[in-house]
Amino acid sequence: METKVPKDGRLTMSEPNNPTTRPSDQATTRPTDYATTRPPGDRLFDEAFLRKLERLAMMSRRAMAGQLQGERRSPKRGQSVEFADFRPYASGDDFRRIDWNAYARLERFFIKLFVEEQDLTVHLVVDTSRSMDWGQPNKLWYAVRAAGALGYVALAGLDRVTVKAFEKQPGAHGQNDNASYFPPRRGKQQAMALFSFLEALHAGGRTDLAPRLRALSGATTQPGPLLLFSDLLDDGWADGLSALAARGFEVTALHILSPDEVRPEWAGDLKLVDVETGAEVEITADLETLRRYHDGLAAWQGELRQFCSARGMHYVPIETSLPFEELLFAMLRWRGVLK
């Protein structure tokens, strides 16, 4: 029996090379291909679910400057109904904004300042490396649906949404940028274009988070909320997330794993093969090995949680068995990602 594992020794099952082979001494969780796990039909969501999403809103803990009028606080001052501050009157100011009550008390002219609400650019980053094409429910399909739902919430809130998918090696020859980049768009009328883009994604290649996230942070002119959908099976996750934080992104890392990665049910002598690099290691999957695996997984997630917390990021561990509505309407609201 041959199984496969992504980088860092985190176990993932795969088909045996001979599809007719069946292990006689153990039950196995067989993988599911991304293309076969997608539900029938062309839409990610039905109309009833989209109406539920419109009751949600994307949270932003910091005021950020946008480009267009929206529903988001901006550090700029402008016209709105929410008072922000006073400043002394200066030549050329609109006299209609003078606070006459302040003048009556202080015999000096002051201008009222109000919060200017502007749109943000919400960045959705989807890991489409080969290790994401795994599990039941499939990790990539779960990530695509989560990105689609959160993107729709942002579009309904008059924010701009852009998507970057990591499909190939950074700078790979022949890479089609149009296939991995959804440029910033605004308004609910762009939802179908967003969904079509996400549905067309496919898994392939290696993760390489550090160079990809550094390149993204360097190329972005409007940092804002950024949601990363990934299994984070790459040694470069810390460098990549640090680059995003240094650029001023408000990062939410949605760490997506399948149930058979969290609780593998294997026994016997196995050959583990990295699905992205082909590296092999042989193990004996006994109780002690599985205990060490579970302890290592818990330590890794604890390290991720501490790393993100220290940098003001959200860390959201997710199993693909989690009901989708529970993710959106309970977990992400409790974590402060949605409201």
Describe the structure.
The protein is α/β, with parallel strands linked by helices. The chain folds into 2 domains: 2-64 and 119-334, von Willebrand factor, type A domain (Rossmann fold); 74-117, no CATH class. The protein has 11 helices and 11 strands. A 6-stranded mixed sheet has the order 6-5-4-7-8-11, sandwiched between helices. Strands 1-9-10 form a 3-stranded mixed sheet. Strands 2-3 form a two-stranded antiparallel sheet. Helix 4 links the parallel strand 4 and strand 5. Helix 7 runs parallel beside helix 8 (237-247).
Kindly list the characteristics that best describe this protein.
339 residues, three-stranded mixed β-sheet, six-stranded mixed β-sheet, 25% strand, disordered N terminus, 2 domains
Q: Supply the number of helical segments.
A: 11
Which percent band covers the strand fraction?
15-25%
**What class would the helix/strand composition place it in?**
alpha/beta
Helix fraction?
25-40%
CATH architecture of the largest domain: 3-Layer(aba) Sandwich
The rough form would be described as elongated
**Biggest sheet, spatial arrangement of strands:** 6-5-4-7-8-11
Low-pLDDT runs? 1-32, 63-81
Distance between the termini: 47 Å
In CATH terms, what is the fold-level topology of the largest domain? Answer: Rossmann fold
Instruction: Report the order of strands and helices.
Output: EHHEHEEHEHEHHEHEHEEHEH
Mean pLDDT: 80
* Overall number of strands: 11
CATH superfamily heading of the largest domain: von Willebrand factor, type A domain
The CATH class of the largest domain, by name, is Alpha Beta
Count of discrete domains: 2
Biggest β-sheet strands, sense, barrel: 6 strands, mixed
